[in-house]
TrEMBL record:
NCBIfam families: ksgA. Pfam families: RrnaAD (PF00398). The gene is rsmA. This is Ribosomal RNA small subunit methyltransferase A. Its EC number is 2.1.1.182. The keyword Methyltransferase applies. GO terms for molecular function: 16S rRNA (adenine(1518)-N(6)/adenine(1519)-N(6))-dimethyltransferase activity; RNA binding. SMART domains: rADc.
């Protein structure tokens, strides 16, 4: 593993910055990613280059997207001499990942994502899923638990259902606050998201699926007979082999897709 560079920069709260410095955690993340020379990697929020050093050293084409202009000089000083390093200063939430597309090589996305933008950024990336082979992210542990949650679990809800529609979700490992400077007040976790090559049960209208899931979880302690009564009669739920007395967290992704497709056809 390449040694991460060191340059001074005060973490900014408005950018949600917590810089990874624990070499053991860095090594474990790099082992999970296993970057290869012939790959195209995109790192969102490289910060002080803790992960970037090993990504560039692997020989892979490494693109980094950094919002904080003040971090750019340090990143350039550390990596500009490498022909395989490419820096994009800007907001990943507005970044057009199609500009990095290669017809022969899908991109791999990596990032220690600021907690305040993690959910909208994931959905932005889902819109480019056909260009992406996999994604490895450091996120707030609670967010990773929601992404990976299964029906019947407390964390199961809108985020996990929609993320699992687009991707296979693998919770890899937990990272404690001491691995960062400054230390956040919560645990973090590493998650791997692999976009499905094909969706076995496609939703005819993604917006319809999002609407049904959002409405179902608007009052998660109520039964779906009550939360979805504006969209479905009880006999329609029975017709779709869904028990109206179940709560939203007991409904599977497949059943939510059936509900959305029923509406789309109706």
């Amino acid at each position: 593993m390449a040694n991460p560079p060191t340059f001074h920069h005060r973490a900014r709260k408005r950018f949600g910055q917590n810089f990874l410095h624990d070499t053991g955690v860095i090594q474990r993340i790099i082992q999970a990613i296993t970057p290869q020379q012939d790959q195209h990697l995109v790192e969102i929020g490289p910060g002080q280059g803790a992960l970037t050093a090993s990504l560039v050293a692997s020989g892979s084409e490494t693109h980094v997207i950094e919002l904080d202009r003040d971090l750019v000089p340090g990143l350039l000083a550390s990596f500009a001499s490498y022909n395989n390093f490419h820096l994009h200063q800007g907001d990943a939430l507005k970044f057009d990942f199609k500009q990095l597309a290669d017809p022969n090589q899908k991109i791999r996305v990596i990032g220690n994502l600021p907690y305040n933008i993690s959910t909208p950024l994931l959905f932005h990336l889902f819109s480019f899923r056909e260009l992406i082979s996999d994604m490895h992210f450091m996120l707030q542990k609670e967010v990773v638990e929601r992404l990976a949650a299964q029906p019947g679990e407390k964390a199961y809800g809108r985020l996990g259902i929609m993320a699992q529609y687009f991707c296979q979700i693998d919770y890899l490992f937990t990272v404690n606050p001491g691995a960062f400077k400054p230390a956040p007040k919560v645990d973090s976790a590493i998650v791997k998201l692999t976009p499905h090559r094909s969706i076995e049960q496609p939703a005819e209208d993604i917006k319809q699926l999002e609407q049904v899931v959002k409405l179902a979880f608007s009052q998660r302690r109520k039964t779906i007979r009550n939360t979805l009564k504006s969209l479905f009669a009880a006999d329609e739920l029975h017709q779709l082999a869904i028990d109206p007395t179940l709560r939203p967290e007991q409904i599977t992704l497949s059943q939510f897709i059936s509900l959305a497709n029923y509406l789309a056809k109706r």
